[in-house]
Amino acid sequence: MVVKFYISMVSGNKEMKKRQMKAQLIMESKGVNFQVIDICDPNNEDERTFMRKNAVGRNNARNAVPPQFFNDDHEDSYCGDYEGFDEAVENDRIEEFLKLPRGSLPQVPVINHNLFGSRDVSMEKEIPQLNGAVPSPRPSPEKEEEEEEEEDEEM
Length: 155
Fold this sequence. Notes:
This protein is of the alpha+beta class. It has helices spanning 14-30, 45-54, 82-90, 94-97, 141-154; strands at residues 3-7, 34-38, 68-71, 78-81, 110-113, 119-122. The strands form two sheets. Strands 2-1-3-4 form a four-stranded mixed sheet, sandwiched between helices. Strands 5-6 form a two-stranded antiparallel ribbon. The longest helix is centred in the N-terminal third of the chain and has 17 residues, at 14-30. InterPro entries: Glut_rich_SH3-bd, SH3BGR, Thioredoxin-like_sf. Pfam families: SH3BGR (PF04908).
């Protein structure tokens, strides 16, 4: 089951590029099996024609613009555009949007990226706050000496 993710690598539209990147990062982090199809690649002329014929443009637009999502395992393979994808992510309905069976995606940590390159990893259990301290696998030399003294006293 492969989702086809139609993008345009050649675009002056920064918003389109940002949306394509965000959608790709989300699908990767969710473990979605997808194929990226660049409609600007001359080798993908048939795919570009397919996308334009089958995708639905927003607000009566003449042509639908990337990113667009399709799932070829269904007779009605069109899943939707970025706005629909974003809404599905917000409502935790990505499988439904991409026409994947419920529970088919692996349970993996979700990595949220922002425009400034920092990452926030959300997992089921919380990571303890260390207030700037870095945990070390071994105790400090002072702590080792104290433990050795305690062991000597016990003997």
